[in-house]
Amino acid sequence: MIADPAASPLSVILVDDEHLIRSALATMLSLEEDLAVLGEASSVEEGEHLAGSAQPDVAVVDLQLPDGDGLDLCARIAEASPSTRCLVLTSHARPGYLKRALAQGVLGFLPKTSSAEQLARAVRAVASGRRAIDAELAAETISSGDSPLTPREADVLEFAADGAPVEQIARRAHLAPGTVRNYLSSAQAKLQAANRHEAAAIARRQGWI
């Protein structure tokens, strides 16, 4: 995109706990003449502080952070910097998360498989107050129906789908093993499944994980 020399570049911050991914995103967006990356953060706390101090146009936020939920961070950013709009970028692009994001006013929601061009285009759209939602996920969300699972229950079920033990699921989800067991038990009850593997299979058929 050819930038208007008279216009100030759109300011962006990046919040992702994976350094390699965060650095790659910063490099890709910095190649766009009309976009400027003001800073990077790796957690909810750092992201909220950075947004408050930098007051960017757009915050590109990972859905899962080591100290909390990216959508919760978006809500906190809205308070710390009311003019900042959130774009969620995630490897957990599921209908339940998209519905929750839309309900709280998040404008952008893309999978991490998006191209650099798609991401830059989405940042511009979100900065201008327009939605930037992955088309495939949007269609899946419309057809999936309402999931009875909370986002965290869906997370642990997805991590359990390959037969992983509770301790491994806990490491993947950044949760304590006891908390994982509670989520799995709750999900099994909601889906009326005999065990967590059957619960994961049911949820996957319904498009909830």
Quickly list its features.
single chain; 209 residues; alpha/beta; Rossmann fold; Arc Repressor Mutant, subunit A; 10 helices; globular
**Largest beta-sheet characterization:** 6 strands, parallel
CATH superfamily of the largest domain: Response regulator
- What count of domains describes the coordinates? 2
Beta strand %: 15-25%
Give the SSE string.
EHEHEEEHEHEHEHHHHH
Give the overall silhouette.
globular
Q: How much is the radius of gyration in Å?
A: 18 Å
CATH architecture descriptor name of the largest domain: 3-Layer(aba) Sandwich
Widest β-sheet, arrangement of strands: 2-1-3-6-7-8
Percentage of residues in helical conformation: 40-55%
Describe the protein's architecture and organization.
This protein folds into two domains: 10-142, Response regulator (Rossmann fold); 151-205, Arc Repressor Mutant, subunit A. It contains ten helices and eight strands. The chain has helices spanning 19-30, 44-54, 70-80, 95-103, 116-127, 135-144, 151-160, 166-173, 177-191, 196-205; strands at 10-15, 35-41, 58-62, 64-65, 68-69, 85-90, 108-111, 132-133. The strands form two sheets. A six-stranded parallel sheet has the order 2-1-3-6-7-8, with helices on both faces. A two-stranded antiparallel sheet has the order 4-5. Helix 1 links the parallel strand 1 (10-15) and strand 2.
Describe how the helices and strands are arranged.
Layout: E1 10-15, H1 19-30, E2 35-41, H2 44-54, E3 58-62, E4 64-65, E5 68-69, H3 70-80, E6 85-90, H4 95-103, E7 108-111, H5 116-127, E8 132-133, H6 135-144, H7 151-160, H8 166-173, H9 177-191, H10 196-205
Parallel strand pairs: 1-2, 1-3, 3-6, 6-7, 7-8
Antiparallel strand pairs: 4-5
Helix pairs in contact: 2-3, 4-6, 7-8, 7-9, 7-10, 8-9, 9-10
